[in-house]
Amino acid sequence: MELTVEMIGFLVAVAFVAGTIDAIAGGGGLLTLPALLAVGASPAATIGTNKLQSTFGVATAVLTFARKGRIDFRRFAKPALAAFLGSAAGAFVLTRVDPTILSGLIPVLLVAMAIYYALKPNLGDEDRHVRARPILLLAFAAVIGCYDGFFGPGAGSFYTTALIAVFGLGTINAIAHTKLLNFSSNLASLMVLLAAGEVMLVAGLLMAVASMAGAFLGAHSTMRFGTRAVRPLLIIMCLGLTANLLSDPANPLTALITNWLG
């Protein structure tokens, strides 16, 4: 499809804002996916192009956090590989089946995460000692990575919640390592969708530049302001993603609620 200059300018602006938000709390796809659909991209091209721009944005966040010593590459090398392999498998399945089979379950999980962040009193920047086995971290990374490759919305929030609640990381460290896992799963999904021809390269690359600039700003803001800014945004993005998914009349949960109320 052909995009006008106005359409491209719109997508670039949205990608910048999404990159900033994604680096802080995840959920940037809440903005970029509807924007791509609004300019007429097909659902498959929307997912593929979004993976292209978000991969560059997340990579920028990873580099920014790494330069500040926030990422333990030795501990998270294997989980990153697990996320990569899981995402590749999920993206391959995406090219074969309809991803809407998950759309009814995800809003429930996102609301649960929003409640967790709102009620948890000791959400802080310091890591806690938790006796979770390393194999469990690999399993979480692979499962969430598979979801990210197959469907996507909320994957960053799932990574962050697991790292805080199950593995005891402080909020900032959890977000930093989420970006590493998210980059790995995004890259795998992008490679599969590129091979399937489901990426708009020109629009995606222009959006990627804007996403990188936004991610740089967001990562620095996270390290500067800490949990004061992060907790509200985590809650807002979880609820925003939920509202976005439920706004689709085709969503199974929306249909169920509509039928029940009717």
UniProtKB/TrEMBL annotation:
The lineage of its organism: Bacteria, Pseudomonadati, Pseudomonadota, Alphaproteobacteria, Sphingomonadales. It comes from the Bacteria. The chain crosses the membrane at residues 47-66, 78-95, 101-119, 131-150, 156-176, 188-217, 229-246. It comes from Pelagerythrobacter marensis. This is Probable membrane transporter protein. Belongs to the 4-toluene sulfonate uptake permease (TSUP) (TC 2.A.102) family. It holds the Pfam family TauE. It is found in: Cell membrane. One of its GO terms (cellular component) is plasma membrane. It is a multi-pass membrane protein. Keywords: Cell membrane, Membrane, Transmembrane, Transmembrane helix, Transport.
